[in-house]
């Protein structure tokens, strides 16, 4: 299985949508709440190539963007392979 990291805030509907997709697929993820710590948000922004919005999603250390990007990968049939779900 791939290592999935997701930067979130508690009230973000896109964060909830991304986490819900991962949960439906049975994927564990490491969540970092950046809502109360400017240093964590800055670290996320640097890792995400300047993107400041949440969620920001990393799979095996590679940045894949936000919730819309994650759902697009799923629609394209590419997400399962990235997550290590294919045989």
Structure description:
One of its GO terms (biological process) is cell redox homeostasis. The protein has 87 residues and is an alpha+beta fold. The protein is 41% helix and 20% strand. The chain is built from four helices and four strands, in the order βαβαββαα. A four-stranded mixed β-sheet has the order 2-1-3-4. Strand 1, helix 1 and strand 2 form a beta-alpha-beta unit.
In short:
The protein has helices at residues 13-24, 38-47, 67-75, 79-83; strands spanning 4-8, 30-33, 56-59, 62-65. By secondary structure, the chain is of the alpha+beta class.
Mean pLDDT: 96
How far apart lie the N and C ends?
Answer: 11 Å
What structural class should be given to the helix and strand makeup?
Answer: alpha+beta
Query: What characteristic shape results from the CA principal axes?
Result: globular
**What fraction strand?**
15-25%
Identify low-pLDDT runs.
none
How many strand segments? Answer: 4
Name the helix and strand elements from N-terminus to C-terminus, one letter apiece.
EHEHEEHH
Name its key features.
redox-active center; four-stranded mixed β-sheet; alpha+beta; transport; single chain; 4 helices; 87 residues; 4 strands
Chart the SSEs and their pairings.
Layout: E1 4-8, H1 13-24, E2 30-33, H2 38-47, E3 56-59, E4 62-65, H3 67-75, H4 79-83
Parallel strand pairs: 1-2
Antiparallel strand pairs: 1-3, 3-4
Helix pairs in contact: 1-3
């Amino acid at each position: 299985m791939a290592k999935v990291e997701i930067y979130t805030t508690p009230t973000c509907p896109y964060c909830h949508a991304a986490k819900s997709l991962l949960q439906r697929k049975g994927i564990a993820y490491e969540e970092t709440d950046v809502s109360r710590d400017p240093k964590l948000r800055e670290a996320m922004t640097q890792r995400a190539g300047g993107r400041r919005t949440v969620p920001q999603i990393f799979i095996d250390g590679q940045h894949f963007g936000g919730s819309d990007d994650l759902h697009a990968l799923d629609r394209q049939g590419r997400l399962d392979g990235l997550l290590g779900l294919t045989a």
